[in-house]
Amino acid sequence: MKSILVIGNGMVGYKFCEKFVAKEGAEKFKITVFGEEPRPAYDRVHLSSFFENGDAKALEMAPRSWYEEHNIELITNERVTDIHRATKTISTISDKTYTYDYLVLATGSSPFVPAIKGIEKKGVFVYRTIEDLEGMMAYADALKKRNPEAKAAVLGGGLLGLEAAKAVMDMGLEPHVVEFAPKLMPRQLDTRGSNVLKNKLETMGIHIHMSKATNKILGDDAITGMEFGEYDKINVEMLVVSAGIKPRDELAKTCDLAMGVRGGIVVNNKMQTNDESIFAIGEVALYNNMIYGLVAPGYEMADVAADQILGKTETLMAADIDMSTKLKLIGVDVASFGEPFMPVEKGYSILFENKTKDLYKRINVSHDGKKLLGGILIGDASDYNMFHQIYLNGLPIPEDAEELIIGSRGEGGKSFGSAMDIPDAAQVCSCESVTKGTICNSIKDGSCNNLADVIAKTKVTTGCGGCKPMVVDLVNETLKSLGKEVKETICEHFEYTRQELYGILKIKKVTTFNEALSTCGKGKGCETCKPLVASIFASLYNDTANKEAVIQDSNDKFLANIQRNGTYSVVPRIPGGEITPDKLIAIGLVGKKYDLYTKITGGQRIDLFGAQLNDLPAIWKELIDAGFESGHAYGKSLRTVKSCVGSSWCRYGMDESVGFAIDLENRYKGLRSPHKIKGGVSGCIRECAEARGKDFGVIAVDGGWNLYVGGNGGATPKHALLLAEQIDNATAIKYLDRFLMYYIRTAAPLMRTATWLEKLEGGIEQLKKIVIDDIFNIAEELEIEMQSLVDAYQCEWKEAIENEEVKSKFKHFVNSDESDDNLVFVPMRDQKMPKSWEN
Amino acid sequence: MEAILSQYETVALNDVKVWFKAAPVKDFPIDGGVCVKYKEKQIAVFNFQLNNAWYACQNVCPHKMEMVLSRGMIGDDKGMPKVACPMHKKTFSLETGENLNGDLDAIATYPVKIEDNFVYIGFSE
Ligand code: SRM
Ligand SMILES: Cc1cc2nc3c(=O)[nH]c(=O)nc-3n(C[C@H](O)[C@H](O)[C@H](O)COP(=O)(O)OP(=O)(O)OC[C@H]3O[C@@H](n4cnc5c(N)ncnc54)[C@H](O)[C@@H]3O)c2cc1C
Ligand code: SF4
Ligand code: FES
What is the ipTM of this complex? Predict the structure, then answer.
């Protein structure tokens, strides 16, 4: 049996093992892997997700047991220190020696740290390993305790630097990016693109400093600032260096392997170094005089090296390596593909820029206008996958190439091309080398029936995940072409869409979950279908969440939002945001008595946080006695109808916006729906109530109200669209009844009105036909349904405190009246907050 | 944190030394859960009527160490009875304790018996 030693257990070293053992003939080799890091290889590309969940295990490429199962010896925490080519042996830091037939160097790279004076100070970090992140997180925590407004800088405005800046921001520090070049992501973006991106990042709260050469890191023991010029400096208390990478080629020096002038181990297209039995792959390999700082080329190198060792010598590394990338920075779309810049002799560029929307698109097209050579997308990269495929496969483009980025003329110009147009051989997932043909065939040959099957079989999307939207399209289109229905069924217990189930439960008059299971479901239910069925019952019968508490989502079950440390928040309804001083005092007294953290919410009311489960009924009793009702802040239901002060006080007011907001809020309070619903009423077009940012919005104009629907803030802000103009109060309510009821009937679970309206065929024009022209002849039915829900309303908190059985569930222990003694609060600005999560 | 977790270890039926009399059956919601206090421990107990079974496990969720599993929803994953944590919906098998939708450590489970309309939980100490 021959022996292969793999040095480096990073992404590429691991991928080599995975690919190798899956190949024919692998059983004739014994693989031993050495890793310097304490844990098995993990997904460095998604390193930043460690900030969100602190879950190192979730990043693992494969658990230790995988190596055992495949007869691979994994030795972690052990650095290889020397290679002895003459004896074909290596030795490690603990002085052990191993013999090889083949050696695979996958030592990756380390961050390049420029020699700036003071760079060794405390608080300066690099961004490469889980340990780096742990160090940063601990430091940032300590920093924030000393100075809640602490700032941190990232040195380098490249792909990784921007990702690090986002991470720093998520840690609660004010992020500053310092870039030497006059633009961001200098290798991928042009100046215009960089400016648009800079703008966008700044609105997100990331400060950008360009054309800055750092002279010195200031501070005694720990960093306190960075100096650029004599009078030019910034005060920062932490620094993340992200100024490029340096291949870890130190082992090549110990044994005289050929190296590049600026580092890296030279390899040919077989991934062989100048010693035939030594291969180098990944970020340490210098191929075509380049180091490729991306996983996809590394994975391809791993495949080539594995085949070469197994004697399949015809597998060679491609001459051209695709360096297209999409930034994963949540919150901004940035992508660059092919040739992002365009020398005039090769082709011409078409640019589109809209600064008000932080949008920039550039495509580069050959002189004859027939080929897409590359481009840059900022602000909206939804076309990236398609463009990338067009570029890679030389697919035809529209005669008028500008249509690619500005859509064809006229209303609703669609993006160009369908994923089904690309050739079968086209590589859709470059990380796992999966072609379009493989994906589509896995469905056509019957071995896969849905996306999850395809992912399990082909590993597509499991690398960087950038190809996911295209894979979803391919899977759905292929299923459709086979006449198979593509439907989003609820879960393993109900093979229906929400709309279908709504219809079934309504016609069969089903009223309990178990009845629903026995009528049209199977199994015992789960956390997906239970709350969904509960929500449908609420929409059909206006059942309160008390009726079948065990199928309610955790918040509905206890009629309050569960918060960190398992305490709850209390939000009484304050319709339209109008409140008397007496009621304010009542809330204040409750907050004081139960020691609750109080805050004015973004929805014009007051939230009291930190209530213990067993105190909830007493708190609500006092609030109800003072004239309050449940605010349903916990439910997928109407939240608030926000108002501006309107004509009663405001000098511009055209109508009484507060009064109308109160009417609307009282009409729809308690109304349960597929997702939460919010409303707004403004007294004039100055729009102080932000009505167009709500699921429904009413704005006073000359001659009545304008009614808007389908807006929201949140993760994907969207302005509501005009449904009707200059209508009176009664008409507005009539249209709203119809609109809301139709939405409740037909939307998918957890789909807000904006997304629902986007998916509704025909969009707002169709909605007008349904709601105003009543083309389906259902308007009356919708109004009756809504009226019966309105009539059935009752405050579920009142119900809860008056009914002993319901009340009895508000206890932490079933066999003791004590409260949870694990709760720990810490003081904050004269109030309190839960102790932070430590793990 | 580790200290909290180390208090909870799965007890097999054969290893039960103490049957702790927790509370009358009527105090346990059908197809729902509650929390039982036993010395320093918090145990989540589920009356899974659809499955004709009772289950008990640690109340602390290994994700963020919150004492909340008893407030979670129960159901099944391809037949395996499970509980979903109310915080971030991590799910755990009520039979083996294993985390079904992630790589968290398994939770500890405990035997339950019903006698004379009372619920008893089995402990090894
Ligand atoms: C308290 C409050 C923040 C504040 O201190 O101001 C808040 C707090 C929460 N918001 Fe919010 N949101 C609050 C106003 C908003 C607003 C502003 C507004 O209503 O004008 C928005 C953007 C507007 C919008 O919704 O379109 C907002 C967009 C969200 C979203 C994103 C929704 C989306 O469609 O993208 C979520 C997540 C979700 O619902 O899935 C969310 C979810 C949450 C949850 C429920 C998360 C959770 O489950 O713990 C928070 C509950 C806190 C609690 O215990 O009460 N909150 N949230 C505000 C309560 C308003 C109220 O009186 O009821
Ligand atoms: C935060 C971040 C985000 C990224 N995002 C992307 C992205 O979106 N897309 C993308 O394509 N790429 C991205 N990358 C780059 C990608 O992670 C690398 O290209 C990839 O990890 C390279 O794999 P590798 O195996 O060559 O090197 P590594 O993953 O660095 O592995 C090398 C391993 O070898 C070990 N080692 C080194 N020397 C020795 C020795 N002498 N003995 C024993 N062990 C040794 C090291 O400790 C290390 O564990 C990102 C990188 C980071 C840090
Ligand atoms: S929207 Fe109009 S009425 Fe309302 S406060 Fe602003 S200016 Fe006044
Ligand atoms: S605390 Fe249980 S899932 Fe997060």
Answer: 0.70
